[in-house]
Amino acid sequence: MFPHSLTVYEYYINTEKKDWSSWEEKIPNNWKPNTKEFHEIMVPTIDTVRNRFLVQNLLLMKDPILLVGNSGVGKTVLVDGVLLTLDANKISFTINFSAGTSSSGVQEIIESQYDRRAKNRF
Fold first, then answer.
1. Is 60 helix (H, G, I), strand (E, B) or coil?
2. Long-range contacts of 68-76 (CB under 8 A, 24+ apart)
3. pLDDT tens series, the chain, 122 aa
4. What sign has the CA pseudo-torsion 25, 8, 67, 54?
5. Using an 8 Å Cβ cutoff, are 79 and 67 in contact?
6. Pairing of strands 19-22, 11-14
C-alpha cells in the first residue's frame, strides 16, 4: 500500500523490506566533505540521492539520459560521480557546449582524447 503522506517522488521501493521507504533513509548520517575541491563536493540530499539512483539504474538498463537544469545544480558532479563507479575499461570526458560550439569543434574535442594511429584510425 502506498503511503498517504507526501507524493510518490518522496519514496522508493525498498526491495529488502518489500515496502515503500523514504529517500531520507539513503542519506548518510555522518556525512562530511573530504579533501575534494569545493566545486567537486556533492552534498547528499533527498534530491541528490534520488537523482543518482535514477541515473545509475537508467545506465544499467542502457537507456539514454538527458540531465537538464540551471547552472550550478550539480548535473556534472552527479554524472562524474556515477562514471567513476563504472568499469575501469570505460573512459569518459566532459564536453561543454555553448552557443559558439560547432560540430567540427566537438569532433576535434573527441579526437583529441584518442591517439591517432593513421589518417582515420584512432
1. helix
2. 74/42, 74/48
3. 777 778 888 899 999 999 999 999 898 888 777 777 887 677 888 888 999 999 999 999 999 999 998 988 888 888 888 888 888 787 777 888 888 999 999 999 888 888 878 877 77
4. positive
5. yes
6. antiparallel
